[in-house]
Amino acid sequence: MDLTMSCSSLFLLFIFTLHIHFLVPTSGKFLPFQQCAPFVCGDKKISYPFKHNERPSYCGYPGYKLDCDGGNLTLLSMDSLKYQVIHMDWSEQILKVARMDLLKDICLGTHVNTTLNFSLFNYTSNYLDSALFYNCNSPSTPQSNRFSCPASGDGYFAFKVDPASKLHELCNFSVFVPFIPIGAPSQPPTWKGSKSATISRATVRDILKNGFEITWIANTSLCENCTKSGGRCGYGWTRLEFNCFCPNGASTTICHKSPIPASVPSPAPTIVPSSMYAYSLTQYVVFK
Ligand SMILES: *[C@@H]1O[C@H](CO)[C@@H](O)[C@H](O)[C@H]1NC(C)=O
Ligand SMILES: *[C@@H]1O[C@H](CO)[C@@H](O)[C@H](O)[C@H]1NC(C)=O
Ligand SMILES: *[C@@H]1O[C@H](CO)[C@@H](O)[C@H](O)[C@H]1NC(C)=O
Ligand SMILES: *[C@@H]1O[C@H](CO)[C@@H](O)[C@H](O)[C@H]1NC(C)=O
Ligand SMILES: *[C@@H]1O[C@H](CO)[C@@H](O)[C@H](O)[C@H]1NC(C)=O
Ligand SMILES: *[C@@H]1O[C@H](CO)[C@@H](O)[C@H](O)[C@H]1NC(C)=O
Ligand SMILES: *[C@@H]1O[C@H](CO)[C@@H](O)[C@H](O)[C@H]1NC(C)=O
């Protein structure tokens, strides 16, 4: 047999195999549809706008990604900090989170304020501005709720602090942490009636362990109809817009029962058949 012939047929076979591999994955469904399925982490079922850290970017709304640590802990990363996601309220779009770095011990190696990316999240009204102050050697710092850290001396915990106050100037480090008061609106029950001068680090940690609430502000209204039609939501797969991934292709709205063939001219085609997807992949492979 001619070598060129067998080479090109091998190549064709290669392309064909690729085709099978990408276009018809084991279940025969559109790849993004498979990749963007909701995922379970511990007791939480997580879906759009969030995507798993390791999934393609088009599975979530830009910026919203969560990690699942050891199959149990749901983790959110923002700036340099990691937060444990304690609870998710899907109807109110609220995440309850707690700072991972404070969960073990409030004595920190590096002091970082809690900051939100306000283009993704916002605080709910249900929190107090509390702060941890470290290295408070000045005699004019408050003498209540003090704790001490082996490496950085005395600190104190202010459960409600005006960020504009000058208190932080008296200590070397201040770390602002919102927390949700439980029970009494202005004071956590642990401290009711107590004017104790010292507070144990474990107590402060347990207070902060309850976390605080943030809302995710992405508008996900288009997702509801997509999900109802049997699709899985995504964003920015072909363009910077919402995508509804269906078993047979992608749509900008909802899944239709049968795919619109690519060859049929349509004024506003909403379905990109999976064959087009495979075609572009093939091209990519050929020209790379
Ligand atoms: C906030 O999130 C948006 C969306 O992911 C990102 O583009 C931006 O860089 C983030 N801002 C900061 C300060 O991290
Ligand atoms: C997951 O959580 C369960 C129950 O809280 C716990 O027993 C188990 O050790 C956790 N697994 C990991 C990997 O953290
Ligand atoms: C936290 O924010 C306060 C007030 O803006 C600031 O004074 C302080 O230096 C910040 N702490 C750190 C560790 O950046
Ligand atoms: C964030 O929350 C504050 C207070 O709850 C509110 O005034 C503000 O408008 C919110 N910002 C956005 C972008 O939703
Ligand atoms: C805290 O700040 C004071 C005055 O700025 C400084 O003298 C002291 O060395 C600092 N302590 C530490 C542990 O950084
Ligand atoms: C969310 O998006 C939908 C569809 O684009 C729009 O109709 C709705 O007004 C938006 N809602 C908000 C709160 O912006
Ligand atoms: C969802 O579908 C309903 C019924 O078809 C429609 O009235 C509504 O406008 C759709 N919602 C969005 C956000 O497109």
Strand sequence of the main sheet, in spatial order? 3-4-5-6-7-13-8
Order of helices and strands: HHEEEEEEEHEEEEEHEHEEEEH
The radius of gyration is 26 Å
How far do the termini sit from each other? Answer: 29 Å
Strand tally is 17
| Helix and strand composition category | alpha+beta
Roughly what fraction of the amino acids lie in strands? 25-35%
What small molecules does the structure contain?
2-acetamido-2-deoxy-beta-D-glucopyranose
Sheet of most strands: 7 strands, mixed
Number of helices: 6
What is the quaternary state of this protein? single chain
Helix content: 10-25%
Poorly predicted sequence stretches spanning 5 or more consecutive residues: 10-25, 184-194, 261-269, 273-288
The general outline is: elongated
What is the averaged pLDDT score? 78
EC number: 2.7.11.1
Main location: membrane
Keywords: Glycoprotein, Membrane, Signal, Transmembrane, Transmembrane helix
Enzyme class: transferase
In short, what is this structure?
With 288 residues, the chain is of the alpha+beta class.
Fold and architecture overview:
A seven-stranded mixed sheet has the order 3-4-5-6-7-13-8. Helix 1 packs across helix 6. It is 22% helix and 28% strand. It is α+β, with helices and mostly antiparallel strands and 288 residues long. Bound molecules: 2-acetamido-2-deoxy-beta-D-glucopyranose (7 copies). One 2-acetamido-2-deoxy-beta-D-glucopyranose binds next to strand 12.
Write the layout of secondary structure elements.
Blueprint: H1 3-23, H2 31-35, E1 39-41, E2 44-46, E3 51-52, E4 65-69, E5 73-78, E6 81-89, E7 94-99, H3 100-104, E8 121-123, E9 128-134, E10 146-149, E11 153-158, E12 173-179, H4 201-209, E13 212-216, H5 221-228, E14 232-235, E15 242-246, E16 249-251, E17 272-273, H6 274-287
Parallel strand pairs: 3-4
Antiparallel strand pairs: 1-2, 4-5, 5-6, 6-7, 7-13, 8-13, 9-11, 9-12, 10-11, 14-15, 15-16, 16-17
The structure holds 2-acetamido-2-deoxy-beta-D-glucopyranose (7 copies).
The site of one 2-acetamido-2-deoxy-beta-D-glucopyranose (NAG) has 2 residues, from loops.
